[in-house]
Backbone:
């Protein structure tokens, strides 16, 4: 049997949607007993949300004043101190999990399996490498604990009609004070969240300015879509960093992805490999994005996008 | 700033990887990816890490920048490039075996114990295995702070303020030094190497340390079972105009 500990990501009182996908990966392993660990400073509401996730056997709420902010240096020793009870520790492959999980792995003297896209069995996994240009099957030693991050775009969230028991503890792990939270500047948006939206419209360097990017927002609003961008659009300051899609941005799997004025570099494509339908609008018919697009339209985006918005209204 | 606050040394990791412009292919026997005759470069994130270290030194906030690589003798090429960019000296920890993330972190820790840097800057991930682990692991083993995915770094005395690119936006943390920082894409834009600098770099010291000399404790390894090509998406249709696009979307139930 596998005893799997899933580390919960949460912010401002809400369980992150990536947790339900991480649980789905854990549940795909035969005979898995799944525990969610919630590190908080006394807030009971996160554990209650976690307890609703199907396939979860129990929830561990670990209280500590230092857990006010999710700092890897603070959480890792608390996880390491309870890890011996588990055969696996999983976290989402979000910036939270990517920051935290390797710190836990090192404390436990094992290598981490990053970005699991498929669990073949309890110790054998498939994961993308080289920006998704190759898939590696990797196997952990049978007697060692498995530490992994889960590529959330590869999994469907489990449903939430469970009532798993919650156990509340406080941590006696040695917690360092060398790392201190200062502030979080979160982009505010009423649009669907990029990582869970069923439709996403993205703009690239071709937009040429932050003002011009308004036509992307406007089209997205008409379609009820989330908004993304290429690295070039972020680097140029047209949009904030949290909108970047790709190898080093967000890996997403919407039903519909519309790439506008984006050339289709491999680092961008790796972020949209699992999209249902890809639409490309680009004036260069040779652009590599057309190699992967299900529907392509060659032409000037400044003419096409307003026309498309009108047609969809 | 008081002289006493200056960092003596910054350690930067440079990994030799397949250049980011190369379209990587899996070998027919599933044993790895094709690297014969393929262009190799410094991992782009590590180049950003080095650029940041050089800027800190050029602002007068550090005395020395040391670049480190781990692996085969060919890694000297990437170290020479690092020296040409402006690093003061280089260390190659030589090994013919593949070095996994945890072993890499242990090797870096051994060098940290020798060199006592005030700061270690690494790339946030290597674009070959895309692991995104080594910096965090080094920080854990060293029992020091980590600031991953950095897009801004300010040193002030014995602490640093780091802005990190996270999923919801930008997080700022304060860390005591020494610490490990991992570089994200927007930390800076690395400089180009000029020809005279390449000539000068040939005279800079490059130490070669056999891995066996560092007495790094082994850890359970992960076995690479097989490498396969990803499922390819098929090329679709090209429509003539917006009406054609809308019709195609409607057909798929997407409009
Ligand atoms: C280590 C590393 C990591 C990276 N990670 C990422 C990542 O996570 N995400 C990412 O996106 N990139 C990433 N990149 C960058 C990537 O390689 C490309 O540089 C980037 O994706 C290009 O963005 P773009 O397509 O917007 O710009 P360009 O490549 O410049 O393409 C612009 C496109 O717009 C078209 N165009 C121009 N004008 C018009 C018009 N009027 N109408 C219609 N079309 C027009 C052009 O034909 C062109 O195809 C990474 C690079 C490196 C080295």
Residues:
């Amino acid at each position: 049997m596998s005893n799997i500990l899933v580390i919960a990501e949460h912010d401002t009182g809400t369980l992150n949607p990536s947790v339900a996908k991480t649980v789905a990966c854990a549940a795909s392993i035969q005979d898995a007993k799944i525990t969610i660990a919630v590190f908080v400073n006394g807030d009971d509401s996160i554990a209650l949300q976690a307890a609703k996730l199907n396939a979860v056997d129990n929830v561990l709420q670990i209280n500590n004043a230092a857990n006010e902010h999710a700092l890897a240096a603070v959480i890792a020793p608390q996880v390491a101190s309870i890890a011996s009870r588990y055969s696996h520790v999983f976290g989402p492959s979000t910036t939270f999990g990517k920051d935290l999980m390797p710190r836990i792995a090192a404390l436990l003297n094992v290598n981490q399996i990053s970005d699991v896209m498929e669990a073949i069995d309890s110790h054998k996994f498939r994961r993308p490498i080289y920006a998704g240009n190759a898939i590696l099957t990797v196997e952990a030693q049978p007697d060692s604990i498995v530490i992994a991050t889960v590529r959330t775009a590869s999994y469907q969230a489990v449903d939430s009609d469970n009532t798993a028991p919650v156990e509340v503890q406080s941590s006696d792990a040695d917690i360092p004070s060398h790392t201190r939270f200062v502030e979080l500047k979160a982009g505010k948006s009423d649009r669907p969240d990029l990582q869970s939206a069923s439709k996403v419209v993205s703009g690239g360097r071709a937009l040429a300015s932050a003002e011009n990017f308004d036509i992307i927002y406007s089209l997205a609003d008409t379609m009820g879509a989330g908004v993304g961008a290429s690295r070039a659009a972020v680097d140029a300051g047209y949009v904030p960093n949290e909108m970047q899609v790709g190898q080093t941005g967000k890996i997403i799997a919407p039903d519909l992805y519309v790439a506008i004025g984006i050339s289709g570099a491999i680092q961008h494509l790796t972020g949209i490999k699992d999209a249902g339908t890809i639409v490309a609008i680009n004036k260069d018919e040779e652009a590599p994005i057309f190699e992967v697009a299900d529907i392509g339209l060659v032409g000037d985006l400044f003419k096409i996008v307003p026309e498309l918005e009108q047609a969809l209204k | 700033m008081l002289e006493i606050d200056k960092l003596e040394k910054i350690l930067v990791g440079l990994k030799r990887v397949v250049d980011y412009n190369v379209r990587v292919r899996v070998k027919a026997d599933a044993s790895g990816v094709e690297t014969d005759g393929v262009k190799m470069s410094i991992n782009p994130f590590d180049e950003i890490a080095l650029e940041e270290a050089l800027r800190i030194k050029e602002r007068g906030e550090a005395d020395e920048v040391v670049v480190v690589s781990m692996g085969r003798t060919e890694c000297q090429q990437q170290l020479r490039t690092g020296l040409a960019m402006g690093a003061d000296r280089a260390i190659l920890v030589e090994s013919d075996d593949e070095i996994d993330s945890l072993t890499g972190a242990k090797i870096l820790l051994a060098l940290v114990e020798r060199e006592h840097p005030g700061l270690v800057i690494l790339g946030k991930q290597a674009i070959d295995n895309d692991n995104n682990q080594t910096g965090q692991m080094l920080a854990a083993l060293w029992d020091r702070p980590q600031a991953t995915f950095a897009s801004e770094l300010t040193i002030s005395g014995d602490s640093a303020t780091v802005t990190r690119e996270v999923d919801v936006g930008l997080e700022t943390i304060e860390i005591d030094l020494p610490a490990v920082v991992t570089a994200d894409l927007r930390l800076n834009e690395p400089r180009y190497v000029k020809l005279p600098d390449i000539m000068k770099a040939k005279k800079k010291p490059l130490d070669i340390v056999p891995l066996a000399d560092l007495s790094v404790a082994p850890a359970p390894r992960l076995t690479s079972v097989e490498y396969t090509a990803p499922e390819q998406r098929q090329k679709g249709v090209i429509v003539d105009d917006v009406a054609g696009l809308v019709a195609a979307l409607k057909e798929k139930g997407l409009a």
User: Anything to note?
Assistant: The mean pLDDT of chain A is 97. The two ends of chain A are 54 Å apart (CA to CA). The longest helix of chain A spans residues 95-107. Chain A is about 25% helix and 30% strand.
